[in-house]
Amino acid sequence: MEKFNLSEIKELSRRQYHDIWQRYNAGEPLEEEEKIIAELMAEHEEFYDDWNSTDFDYEYSPEKDEVNPFLHLMIDTVVMNQILANDPPQTRFTYNKLTARGYSHLEAIHEIAAVVVEEIWNILHEKRPFDEKKYVSKLKKLK
To answer: How many helices (H) and strands (E) does the chain have?
Structure first.
């Protein structure tokens, strides 16, 4: 049995993001999921240096107030996939409500992403399964 190596998985994931970013900028064709990721990457100008970097094992430090752009992108992608799949429907409804109230596309995604992160945190710390009703209830509270 192979040993699970988080460092190798992280590097592979970052290589894949780097590859998507390079292909997007070169105008090469992308698969559907890659298009979603590339468009989100393009909207995050503050992370362009990270998308272009080949330092795939760099450790982002919360103690130094560094945001991990790859983790950030993963959460944004979860939200976009929920919106596009309309699953749960409240995610798309909440996105439409927020953008109708003046939030930009990315601001609305980030508002919803904050709820996703909170739910993930609670699942991990309370050692409980995902509770869609709770998640939907938190989405409904976004203004």
So the answer is: 7, 0
Q: Name the one residue in this structure whose structure tokens are 């609670």.
A: 122
Q: CA-CA distance, 88 to 3, in Å (whole number)?
A: 35
Question: What would the pLDDT profile of 90-128 be if each residue is shown by its tens digit?
Answer: 999 999 999 999 999 999 999 999 999 999 999 999 999
The type of residue at 46 is: E
63's tokens:
């103690």
How many Å apart are CA 44 and CA 106, to the nearest integer?
Answer: 9
pTM of the full predicted structure?
0.90
Q: Do you find a cis peptide bond into 88, omega within 30 degrees of 0?
A: yes
CB contact at 8 A, 52 and 21: yes
* 3 state DSSP class of 33: helix
| Calpha distance 36→55 (Å, rounded) | 23
**Up-side HSE of residue 70: CA atoms within 13 Å toward CB?**
23
Q: How far is CA 90 from CA 35, 87, 106, 124, 139, in A?
A: 23, 8, 17, 23, 7
